[in-house]
Amino acid sequence: LMNKITFPTFIFTIVKTKESSVKILLEQIMYAQLSNRIIHYHLRNGTIVRSLYLRSSFTEAVSDLLTDPSFLLCGAGMVVNLSTVTRLENGNAVFFDNYIVPLGTKSFRTLKTAWVDYCINKENL
Predict the structure, then answer these.
(1) Pair 32, 78: CB distance under 8 Å
(2) Distance from C-alpha of 100 to C-alpha of 25, rounded to nearest angstrom
(3) pLDDT computed for residue 114 by the predictor
(4) Which one in 74, 98, 100, 118 has a CA-CA gap of 20 to 30 Å to 3?
């Protein structure tokens, strides 16, 4: 009997920008945030990729990210890659290289619960 190996449905996403279409590996995304109907993808290397003006809902636009268990919809306009969060403190999410992102109270609570669960479950894989 062989174990079936399953892979995430998506390992990258394609973001349409003003200049071109950009392929981004999901593991490179720290978080994606909606601002003025444009999604800003914040990457681990410090790059920010800006999408074209959004004509659909934010959730629809980031649906491929949300198929990955590492990603959490955190509020109406933010998706966080739980694997890139190093700590949570004082209402802030802290990512690699001490990159700090302030969150609202409700989003912080949602993220804190999911991040702790994610870290515990990741240990058991």
Answers:
(1) yes
(2) 22
(3) 96
(4) 118
Nearest one of 56, 61, 54, 50 to 21, comparing CA atoms: 50
- Mean pLDDT, range 38-51, rounded to an integer: 97
Rounded Cα distance between 114 and 107, Å, is 11
96 band by pLDDT with thresholds 50, 70 and 90? confident
Residues 85 and 51 sit within 8 Å (Cβ to Cβ):
no
To the nearest whole number, what is the mean pLDDT of the chain? 90
Q: Among positive and negative, which fits the CA dihedral 51, 60, 111, 28?
A: negative
Q: Do 90 and 108 form a contact (C-beta atoms < 8 A)? A: no
What three-state secondary structure class fits 39? Answer: strand
The SS3 of residue 109 is helix
- How much is the pLDDT for 28? 96
Assign 3-class secondary structure to 43-72: ECCCCEEECCCCCCCHHHHCHHHHCCCCEE
